[in-house]
Amino acid sequence: MGLFDKIKSIFTSEEQEKESSEQDTPTEVSESDDATDDSDLETIETIDQEKAEEALSKEEMKSLEDEVAVTSDETVKQVDKPEVEELHSSDEPQRKTQTFSEVEASARAEAEQYKEGLKKSRRSFTRRLNELFSNFRYEDEEFFEELEDLLIESDVGFEATMYISEVMRYEAKVENIRSMKDAERVLVRTMVDLYGDTNPDYVEFNENPTGLTVLLFVGVNGVGKTTTIAKMAHQYIKEGRKVMLAAGDTFRAGAIEQLHVWGERVGAEVISSQQGGDPAAVVYDGLEQAKKNGADVLMIDTAGRLQNKKNLMNELEKMKRVVSREVPDAPHETLLVLDATTGQNALNQAKIFKDTTDVTGIVLTKMDGTAKGGIVLAIGKELGIPVKFVGLGETMEDLHKFDTEKFAYGLFRDLLEQTV
């Protein structure tokens, strides 16, 4: 099943649930319905009896729970004090587990956040497509040129735009497109399935007690790099992981202080030096402290200046050499942070950093503030770098792992209403 069919099934299920809830809504009882026959009275008596038995069952259950609680208290009292202290002094991180219902509720909430966070992109794209389809009655060359212009202006990227255009031309040629409604359906299906090709892999945390996962963050100033580090650290700490931060951006004034402020807020220790110090030395100190303190994750901030690409490349390469020497196979992720609101400029930054360092994934911030959600396709198709995280708001909970299904649903929901 392609991504389009999955999204369509989700949308259809939502509509069915909505219709079912409307049908299940109790109607008002008129005064003429007050009179009941004997069978109704028997039914009422049966219900009352069942309620009484249920209440009795609850009392029995409460009594049983009280007995279990007393037994548990007595068992706890029998535990030797040294054993209790040993349990509390254990350095093993307490991983938080979730029930199935909690996971399901979390997934639904995240899908809703995707829908809300991509509202600007969805409304803009839907409006412009509706205008395109309403202005053209047949799929002629002018239609395809207008479509290509619309996609490029939406920052879908040249390669993805040409691919979509070729698919549309082919479908028109074999007569799978005979109306504008068909054209809209083929376009939505093609774009949704394109997003399905961008599903990324995520770093697997080393669960060995002596293991350390190292994440390196790169990106220009002003894209939300430090805030992204704080949000990600906050989420890992909530999962029960021990997180440390290294202030490797010693060039920008205030960068070290900013990371310290965020570290205090989320509860992560920050390793730093004075402004203008050697970033590689900070990274080395951070690695030593992380291993000494048994940290699970070390997140490294870096300078974002692009004025002298050669200096930046040399600096990043030096930091990576230090990391790989101290922790084999590290850094496990090199994440490039981009501001989605800058559109094509973000794509240009990605090209520069790809030439400068080995970027393994993209973090797109401020997706809720842009009408150009197509930038995800441009990065994936033109650079071959997967988008791994997206920022859909300003709170600490608004950084999400990139989910193609939820993203495509959030971006194309209005169009799906028109095509399903």
Termini gap: 16 Å
Annotation, overall tally of beta strands: 8
Q: Tell me the β content.
A: 5-15%
Provide mean pLDDT, rounded: 76
Assembly form of the protein: single chain
The residue ranges in which pLDDT falls below 50 over 5 or more consecutive positions are 27-47, 60-65, 67-93
- Based on helices, strands and strand pairing, what is the structural class? alpha/beta
Q: How many separate helices?
A: 15
| Main beta-sheet annotation | 8 strands, mixed
Task: State the strand order across the main sheet.
Answer: 3-2-4-1-5-6-7-8
- The gross shape turns out to be elongated
As a percent range, the share of helical residues equals 55-70%
Describe the structure.
The protein has 15 helices and 8 strands. The chain has an 8-stranded mixed β-sheet with strand order 3-2-4-1-5-6-7-8, sandwiched between helices. The protein is elongated, with a radius of gyration of 28 Å. The protein has helices at 3-24, 38-78, 81-89, 100-117, 119-135, 141-153, 158-173, 180-196, 225-238, 255-266, 279-292, 309-326, 344-356, 375-383, 404-419, and strands at residues 213-218, 243-247, 269-271, 297-301, 333-339, 361-365, 387-391, 399-401. Helix 14 links the parallel strand 6 and strand 7 (387-391). Helix 5 (119-135) runs parallel beside helix 15 and helix 11 (279-292) runs parallel beside helix 12. By secondary structure, the protein is α/β, with parallel strands linked by helices.
